[in-house]
Amino acid sequence: MIKKCLFPAAGYGTRFLPATKATPKEMLPVLTKPLIQYGVEEAVEAGIHTMAIVTGRGKRAIEDHFDISYELEHQIKGGSKEHLLDDIRALIEQCTFSYTRQVEMKGLGHAILTGETLIGNEPFAVVLADDLCTNTAKGVLSQMIEVYEKYQCSIVAIEEVPMDQTDKYGVIAGHLVDGTDDTYRVTDMVEKPDPKDAPTNMAIIGRYILTPDIFDILRNTKPGKGGEIQITDALLEQAKKGKVIAYKFKGKRFDCGSVDGFVEATNYFYKNIK
């Protein structure tokens, strides 16, 4: 039922300057593969083949990556390095990529709203590429789609974080449902609360499944934390009607939007995934 995945990819990546001055942060490689490719592969594993990417100025490299490079392919054809393009070729053949540009950086909620023209009136997944997730059994999006099929409402992926780090995340409160130990009906959501004000230590990470009514809610959502339109505030409107489920995913997640997380991911993938 989930056919499209939205990738908000218009941010500046200021924590990685000067590397991101001319290179999109989504194109920073963990080993030999850019972050956004890991995200697309996770979506494909979940049965999604239509990728909608919200870009901005200086993001042309993303479009070029998911396109054929005839000159490069000609140069390495028949050689020992030809196989290095197998994974990206497979994605290009399997997927449809469409793009729209976020003209102003007004927050994640605004970026998702910008993608409405690519999504239309249907439920969809959202992947933030700088949250790199791995699971040897089943990817995070695949897990979330199973939850969506059961509850038919918006789903957010969560993990427990140290209480002194709640000011980096959207944080949820809720109660366990259906006798599970990993699925919560959300009752409250707060964007980047101070640790003393956080309702829990259950933080939303960069994986969502959203129902299409989120677009109308976002249109009427006023700027919140940091003067930006926050997806957390929009989701809270759905949560007030009991229509948001938080799922504590199985797997490992790396915050590759930070230098420490990026290095941790690189070391982990070098030892375990290469």
Features:
alpha/beta; Spore Coat Polysaccharide Biosynthesis Protein SpsA, Chain A; 5-stranded mixed beta barrel; two-stranded antiparallel sheet; globular
CATH superfamily: Spore Coat Polysaccharide Biosynthesis Protein SpsA, Chain A
User: Given the structure, what is the number of helices?
Assistant: 10
Strand order of the largest sheet: 8-11-9-10-12
Report helical residue fraction: 25-40%
General form: globular
| Number of individual domains | 1
CATH third-tier fold name: Spore Coat Polysaccharide Biosynthesis Protein SpsA, Chain A
Which CATH class is shown? Alpha Beta
Number of strands: 13
Termini, distance in Å? Answer: 32 Å
Poorly predicted regions are none
Tell me, rounded to a whole number, the average pLDDT.
93
Task: Give the H and E element order.
Answer: EEEHEHHHEHHEEHEEEEHHEEH
What would your notes on this structure say?
The protein has 274 residues and is of the alpha/beta class. The protein contains 10 helices and 13 strands. The strands form 3 sheets. It has a 5-stranded mixed β-barrel. The chain starts with a strand and ends with a helix.
Short description:
The protein has 274 residues and is of the alpha/beta class.
Describe the SSE topology:
Elements: E1 4-8, E2 29-30, E3 33-34, H1 35-45, E4 50-55, H2 60-65, H3 70-76, H4 86-94, E5 96-101, H5 108-114, H6 116-119, E6 124-127, E7 131-134, H7 140-151, E8 154-160, E9 170-176, E10 183-191, E11 202-210, H8 214-219, H9 231-239, E12 244-248, E13 252-255, H10 259-272
Parallel strand pairs: 1-4, 1-6, 4-5, 8-12
Antiparallel strand pairs: 2-3, 6-11, 7-13, 8-11, 9-10, 9-11, 10-12
